[in-house]
Amino acid sequence: MGRYILRRMGFYLIAAWASLTLNFIIPRLAPGDPAAAMFARFEGKVAPEAMGALKAAFGFTDAPLYAQYFTYLKHLVQGDLGMSYAYFPARVTEVIGTGLMWTVALAGVAVIISFVVGSFLGVLAAWNRGGWLDSGLAPALAFLGAFPYFWLAMLALYLFGFVLGWFPLRHAYGHDMEPGLSFAFAADVARHAVLPASSIVVATLGGWMLGMRNTMVATLGTDSIRLAHARGLPPRQVMLRYAARNALLPNVTSFGMAVGFVLSGSLLTEIVFSYPGTGYLLILAVRNQDYPLMQGLFLVITLAVLAANFAVDLICLWLDPRTRAHA
């Protein structure tokens, strides 16, 4: 088992190194550089002599490419992703940290709720095949899941926010609220998160349910489940401990990939609700040609997906005895 973990860790370390290298190369292949773009934005209000200092600040110097690469790696080890010139002189880590907090709170919680509820509904639908969960709810959720996230978000915003006025239309909290550790602020944040989180849950619930239902149906036909029934075990124990545990593995693997969706901030949903997450930050970075911020966001998303998939590999190793036997 130790060799398996080391092999997987080595694979993800190589993948992380490749993503770091691409993150360094791609901005340097693009025409121009952040310093030139920033100089143009100020329309001649910055002295030409400052160009050299700006290039050095953004990591674009006349040094050889390999020297720039090692400097880039050194800064990464120190947790320095450079300066954002859309939010100049704020550091990229500070800007991303703020957006990441809101994204994890919104999309992270929504995806976890969708995964848990959808998987459990899939178990029940497969166990009671032909019932209303299997023949009614599953097709309805699959139908809703066929619509784009942003369409469901706009529909929820119009109906429950604009027409009925039950929920706020935009932002993460009200303009009159002072951020802090208070019940009033937490309640206001939760109220603002209901519509965007619900649109994510509704759009993804059907996929988790159908995936779990199909795998569960196949698992219920195996010899191990027949043996569990023959031993006289309680139906609930057979359903949860034997069938659901084995059927859960594909959904757990898919959950690792869903982290990319979480950290990209469910981009269009955040735009619809003007929610200050990483997806909204990415749009602002593209509009302002903020290369350091784009670079930092891509890096954080990539490393988070790799870390989540490594965690999923460890969870599958714990859930599936067959994996441990071949590890």
TrEMBL record:
It is a multi-pass membrane protein. Coiled coil: none annotated. One of its GO terms (biological process) is transmembrane transport. Pfam families: BPD_transp_1. PROSITE patterns: ABC_TM1. It is found in: Cell membrane. Keywords: Membrane, Transmembrane, Transmembrane helix, Transport. The keyword Transmembrane applies. The keyword Protein transport does not apply. Residues 100-312 form the ABC transmembrane type-1 domain. Belongs to the binding-protein-dependent transport system permease family. This is ABC transporter permease.
